Amino acid sequence: MENINAHIQKDRELLNDPTISPQSRRHTQEELNALESYKENHPEDTHDPTSLELYCDANPEAPECLVYDD
């Protein structure tokens, strides 16, 4: 995606499609929730975050998200 707003819009369009599978709907809803939370936490950032960025935004204490300054 070109930016987070376009990704959110795409996910909303997918959720409005009555023919998507329940699994796809569940995945898209979870992704949309994560994107909206990321956007709320980082209002100045417009890039489309990766799945790792979304995960670390929700779980900053996770070992894979910790940043060490040496």
Structure report:
With 70 residues, the chain is mainly alpha-helical. The protein is 57% helix and 0% strand. The chain is built from 3 helices and no strands. It has helices at 4-15, 22-41, 51-58. The longest helix has 20 residues, at 22-41. The radius of gyration is 14 Å and the shape is elongated. The mean pLDDT is 95.
Total helices: the number is 3
Stretches where pLDDT falls below 50 for ≥5 residues? Answer: none
Helix-and-strand structural type: mainly alpha
Gyration radius from CA atoms, angstroms: 14 Å
* Percentage of β-strand residues: under 5%
What's the helix-strand series?
HHH
Could you say which overall geometry the principal axes of the C-alpha atoms support?
A: elongated
Main beta-sheet annotation:
none
The overall pLDDT, averaged over residues, is 95
What is the rounded distance between the termini? 34 Å
Helix content: 55-70%
Number of strands: 0
Give the structure's gist in a few sentences.
This protein is mainly α and 70 residues long. 57% of the residues lie in helices and 0% in strands.
Indicate the topology.
Blueprint: H1 4-15, H2 22-41, H3 51-58
Helix pairs in contact: 1-2, 2-3
List key phrases describing it:
about 70 residues; 3 helices; about 55% helix; elongated
